[in-house]
Structure formats: C-alpha cells, structure tokens
Amino acid sequence: MKHFQIESNIVRCPNHEYAEKMIAAIDAVRVRGDSIGGVITCIARNVPRGLGSPVFDKLEAELAKAALSIPATKGFEFGSGFAGTLLTGSEHNDEFFIDGHERIRTRTNQSGGIQGGISNGEIISMRIAFKPTATITRKQHTVTRDKQETELIARGRHDPCVVPRAVPIVEAAVALVLVDQLMAQYAQCNLFPINPALQEPMELPRLESAGVPL
Fold it and tell me: Average pLDDT of the chain?
C-alpha cells in the first residue's frame, strides 16, 4: 500500500473501486441529513522487536489507549481481533521459523506483530471503529436543562462521516506511542547490557492506514 494511493481520493481509501462505493454511501446518508460510521485499518512496518512490556504498559494496550482516546472511537481490534475467537489454538498460533536472512520470523501474523505485550518484529496491525457523527440535520428528540422534552435540529457544517478525517489522526496517535516506546527501550538499553544475538539495528517504523465506512 502506497501513501499516494490513500491520499488519491477524498475518503482516503487505497482501493479505487471501494473508494467510489464509500463516496456514494456517504453522499447517500448526507442528503438524508444523516451520518455514517466506519473502520480505519492501521499498520506499522519495520517496528523493531522488544517494544512494550509483558505486564504493565503492554504495547497493544498503549496503542488501544491512544486510539480510543480519539473522539468518536467505539472499538479497537488488534491482529486477528474478534475473529480470532472462532479459531482453535493450533489455527491461531503463529509458528516461528528462520527465514533466508537467518532472522526469526513467524509464518502467520494472527498476533498482529505483538506477542505477550511486546513487538516481535512483524507488521503491527490494528482496526479502529468510529461511530456515526452525532450532530445531524435530521430532527431528533432531546431534553432541555429544565427537564422539558423537545425536538432538536442541528445547524452548521458537520461531516456525514468522520472516518476520512480520522486517518491521519490515527497515524499520529500510533506514531506517538511507537516513538515513546522506542525512547523507553533506548533508555533501558543504555542501562543494561545489549545482546547482539537478539537485538538488531533499529529502523524507523512506517505507518499506513485507511478507512472504510460501515
């Protein structure tokens, strides 16, 4: 997935066919004065092994905390997510092997690049759900401060779907978590001996994300 593919359309979807369907779906609810939600998939490449902690400050927990701190978020999936509950242990386990460059890898990536709260060097993948925009132009029932039932019609400009706008926000939140974890590991490695057999030179992580409406 290339960055220019994501930014090639107003909904920030790298697949042109699905981008057109997304635009049509959003426009359909917009003209009805309604809104729609969606899901953003974010992946991080080249994340070094060893980021995170096994008990407190697990890497997936820190990523979830950052993602769910973004307004309008309602769900977070990591790796296989909820679909993993339908698999057996033998189907879900990521088996290790030695690749052609003598590196320890996993044949599958159900764990989403993090095992036991610590990055394992594989692609980190997550999905964040965003609710439909709350402020819509359709008439809705509400209650005033003095407990009187009334009707409300919102005014002004409001996005019928926040997912396209949230893509760079998700990237920024994930980047902040990874940089924080990189700094923590760097500080720790300066305090404790480094094992060259297990640790490799760090590369800057590369983030990619795209949104899909529900």
Answer: 89
